[in-house]
Amino acid sequence: MMNRILLAAVLAVSAAMSGCAEKQNAHPSVKITPTIKTRVTGLHFDSGDQVGLSILKGADAYVTNHPMTYEGSAFSGSGLLWYNNLNETSTLTAYHPYSSAGVPAEFSVAADQTGGYASSDLLGAVKRDVTPGSAPVGMVFYHLMSQLTIVITNNSEAAVASVSVGGLVPTATVDLTVPTAAAKAGAAVEEVRAFEMTPGKSYRVILVPQQAALTVTVGTSDGKSHSKTIAAALLESGKQYDMSVTVTNVDISVSLSGDVSDWGDGGSLGDGGGDDTGELTYGDDTYPTAKIGGRVWMAENLRYKPAGAVEGTDMWPSQSGLSAGMLYNYATATGGVSTTGGAPVQGICPAGWHLPTAAEFESLIAAERPDGFLDYAGFRNENGYGDSSRGYLLGGDPSGADRVRCLSYSEDSAPAIKDMLTGYFFPLRCVKD
């Protein structure tokens, strides 16, 4: 259930205390005394903060978008008094931040939130069947936008300079009588720059709730920028999400999930359905899988024999036997398909999986791996010579005309990326898209 901002809205109705007051026909003023449990910018309103208050008396507007200013202990509005009939009910609607242009039917988050994001955090509250009186009126304020916190693990040689989120509509249509908000139909998408909470480590941004392809871009001090897109990311109103981003010299990897904080639990937003760990069945073989560094890997070497491939020419069995997987050259593993624009290549991997990229190798090196994940199936050269004393994993990124980026390791050396000849044969672990 959506976490809520509890606002004990005390409508300070000063009943007529004397006959003199009755003769003066004095009306009590409307005040709101807030007690905030949680809020995006902290645990309190600041002096000078404003909300817009509207009061609907029956079908008629008693007051519309009246500014109420926080003065240290209460919100008050100059000249706002209760009506005469103490038995007539009304509906109170309030929102923050206040806009002098009127009660917002649309609301846009700031495209540049590097200086702060509070002005993009739209809050709404509704209380029905209210009658003037001295008893406090409790109003529940809801976050109507979505919040995304981006946590950076920087394994590159450059410092993180900026983080932005793109692919999303920045404008919402708003109905404060519910209250609710949704992305404006037909509006153009826009990149939103995130606020730096901890230098180089964590960033936060307020976004309009919607389902779309979310792209995070990390800029580094060497002038480079790396982007990654999560297809069909669902951001719900009033919920906050955490994104883990690993930056390498080559690329970035991301994972997105929900967490409970000041906002509601956003659940899981991964870029695919189902359990990311477990087993994968492909080509009459079953492979265990493991989630490492935000990616799901096959935990055993591929044993698949492509149709038409000739053993001893296009592939070799490992010297440790077929259970240790087949060894493939680059042409066989990619199916003759070249990578374009750095996009991963499916090759002979199952649908929804691909050959590892150099960035995914970097993340695998940096991450904690299950015991025994890296085995020693060796390699073979073009003449069939083999060496099983070292471990290799074939990658999908070419390096020059005749080399490919692979993972290399041994008992005496830590895993590292090395450029190997495309004609050599190596084990292959596929990675989930």
Automatic annotation (TrEMBL):
Domain Fibrobacter succinogenes major paralogous: 291-366
Alphabetic keyword roster: Signal
Superkingdom of origin: Bacteria
N-terminal signal peptide: 1-21
InterPro entries: Fib_succ_major, Mfa-like_1, Mfa-like_1_N
Stated name of the protein: Major paralogous domain-containing protein
